[in-house]
Amino acid sequence: MNNKIENRFKKKINILKKHNKSYFIHDKPQITDAEYDKIKKELQDLEKNYPFLKKIDSVENVIGAKPSNKFDKIKHLKPMLSLSNAFDEKDMNDYLKKIGNFLNIKNQIIELSCEPKIDGISATLIYENGILTKGLSRGDGTTGEDILENLKTISTIPKKINSKKIPNLIEIRCEIYISKRDFDKIKTKFANPRNAAGGSLRQKDPRQTSKIPLKYFAYGLGAIEPMFFQKQSEFLAKINEWGFSTNPLSKKITGLREIQKQHSVIDNLRSSLEYDIDGLVYKVNDLKLQERLGNTSNSPRWAIAYKFSAEKAFTEIKDIVIQVGRTGAITPVAKVEPVTVGGVVVSNATLHNEDEINRKDIRIGDTVKIQRAGDVIPQVVSVDLSKRKDKNRKFIFPSKCLCGAPTKKEISKSTKKEDAVRRCTKGYDCKFIAKEKLKHIVSKEAFNIDGLGKKVIEQLWDLNLIKEPADIFNLNYEKIIRLEGWGELSIKNLDKAINKSKKITLDKFIYSIGIRHIGQENAKILAEFFTSSDAFIEIFKREKRDEILKNLVELDGIGETQVESLDNFFSNSKNILITKNLKDQLIISNFNKKDKSGKFSSKKLMFTGGFENMSRSEAKSIAENNGGKVLGSISKKLDFLIVGNSKPTKKKIDQAKKLKIKIITEKEWNKILDR
Ligand code: IVH
Predict the structure, then answer these.
(1) Probe ligand 1: pick from 122, 125, 284, max atoms within 8 Å of CB?
(2) CA nearest 453: which of 468, 473, 438?
(3) CATH code assigned to 73-307
(4) Is residue 115 within 6 Å of ligand 1 at its C-beta?
(5) Cis previous bond, 226, omega within 30
(6) CB within 8 A of 480, min separation 6: which ones?
(7) pLDDT (tens digit, 9 = 90+) per residue, 373-427?
(8) Looking at domain 604-672, what is its CATH homologous superfamily?
């Protein structure tokens, strides 16, 4: 009996394997999806009724991981950063100067690798001893999602590197895209090829992923052990030899003239390419120089994206409405006759603020030029006055917020000028601001709760189920399950995702509160300063706040603007209550300072004078990458004053001597760094 079942099982599993091959590898399915699912179901039933079969083979092994509702999150070996942008020749000239200054090699020409910037979805592939073992999405840049099974359905991604000489570990960064032609076949379902690629990659069922033909270009090196390459161009050539697809338009170039030339060559080719590109990426070709240049908080210094000019179109303004952002900013938005701009249908375009509308004299009914660049919100550029009709009305900018409260323009402390943006100052008391704040809280960079997006926040807000952040953690699921679109499984998954998000790091908690001017980077600096959530909430107390704020000004990266904003936010008792309620729902872990173990671990340094073989910026970055902190003024807190040979300030040296601070000469500094 068992033998018979075993034979039946083996036979069917082989059939399934055969169909997988025709489907995934040859891209020629022999049976319909329904037929495939029937075989799958039969096998699953057999496996359930006769558990001994699992020892022979497992259906799950053959069909890929069970379509799960959530992808596992995995920390990246190296963060996946974004790129800073350049828009014109001047920006590129500034960039070249900046890297030259940083490296202190002003007159030498730095070789660049110039590559098309593919407008797709980034992913990273990890090969251990040549075998593809992990495949992650970018996620929030620090942690990605395990999408290996889906990536494996892209037949052109090597599952194994067939070469004798390979590093033990190599991480290949790539951009997944869908070709323009393939997108044409499915364009009713997605706004643009990029969304289609993203949607397909995040499909829970890898078999579905393979239905949309995904392609990729490998462009970068993540982690590697041991180091194997000296140049970016060499890396690209080698991985191409190994079977990865790399972009054929990549080129080594030097100098501004060549940059400009290449820019227009590729811009002219752009529309004839089979994939969308939105600019060119310029990378310092020498990997050692790349290492010296390092990263700023969000992007590498060794690369820049030089964007093509934005795509434009003409359309008519049907109406102008206002929107309220999470910081209370009132933004006028033009509702336009839907028009396709660079492959995307646009029906809303921002008008920025009242002054912009007046300056450009934009009226309802006008024909306007709108532009869209990458992910940036489409904007109204100018009016075609030849098409102006007498009946076109001026927009009267409301002095009140949508909530009815008066708005105001702030006066900047530094410039003493009036801000162009009008703001509602009601904070959580304005329901429009409150909703936006909630959307920010659940966003990818903050709590990152799967299944709780902007639309769900709107829905649950309207039903009075979420009014403040803490409510997210006390949802009435019995009510939600009765709503359209919700089922037991989605509720279970939402509950799971919410519970998981309760564990949060201090920096993400601070960022999620949504204090104006406190972005991700500032939140990290603050988290490093406070270290624990208990220390952070001392800022709630009026009598402690002034002292805390005074200390914050000393932090590199925190300025008066941030301090003032923190003071404003916590002077409002409702904000304190809401933040406290939220905190009570969470398990907030202390901030882990990066690279504590470096040469300057927990030491405070200061520099004076210039160095011969490195710029001040590089010296600062080296100190920070090695666990040190760089201060801007001499105080008792300082551990070392590093004195460069070129024009050091005598006063600083004298002060340091007086305070018995250790002085390090340029020669000693180079010795410490093994240079
Ligand atoms: S290099 C930031 N090269 O652009 C680390 N990126 O805005 C270095 N991208 O997340 C990135 N084509 O997904 C690089 N040839 C290329 C690229 C490219 C597309 C994407 C990538 C990255 C994003 C940064």
Answers:
(1) 122
(2) 438
(3) 3.30.470.30
(4) yes
(5) yes
(6) 460, 465, 486, 491, 494
(7) 766 789 999 999 999 999 999 999 999 999 999 999 988 776 788 999 999 999 9
(8) BRCT domain (3.40.50.10190)
CATH numeric code, 427-501: 1.10.150.20
Measured CA to CA, the distance from residue 619 to residue 613 in angstroms comes to 10
Per-domain residue ranges for the chain? 2-61, 73-307, 312-394, 427-501, 505-589, 604-672
Q: Check if 124 has its Cβ closer than 6 Å to any atom of ligand 1.
A: no
- Give the CATH H-level superfamily of domain 312-394: Nucleic acid-binding proteins (2.40.50.140)
Query: What are the residue numbers of the active site?
Result: 117
Q: What is the pTM of this model?
A: 0.70
Burial class (CB in 10 A: 0-12, 13-18, 19+), 440: buried
Q: What is the CA 383 to chain-centroid distance, rounded? A: 34
CA-nearest residue, atom 24 of ligand 1: 82
Residue with structure tokens 């997605």?
190
Please state which of the ranges 58-62, 189-193, 339-343, 529-533 shows the lowest mean pLDDT. Answer: 58-62
Residue 636 Cα to ligand 1 middle (Å): 44
Give the integer Cα–Cα distance in Å for 386 and 395.
19
In order of 78, 139, 155, 591, the CA distances from 169 in angstroms are: 13, 21, 22, 29
Alpha-carbon gap, residue 422 to 604, rounded angstroms: 42
The dihedral built from the CA positions of residue 362, 363, 368 and 374, taken in this order, carries a sign that is: positive
pLDDT, tens digit, for every residue of 221-232? 999 999 999 999
Q: Which residue has the tokens 């964007």?
A: 307
Closest C-alpha residue for ligand 1 atom 23: 82
CA-closest candidate to residue 222, choices 172, 180, 270, 264: 172
What is the Å distance from ligand 1's center to 121 Cα?
9
Closest CA to 225 of 127, 304, 100: 127
Nearest Cα residue to atom 6 of ligand 1 = 117
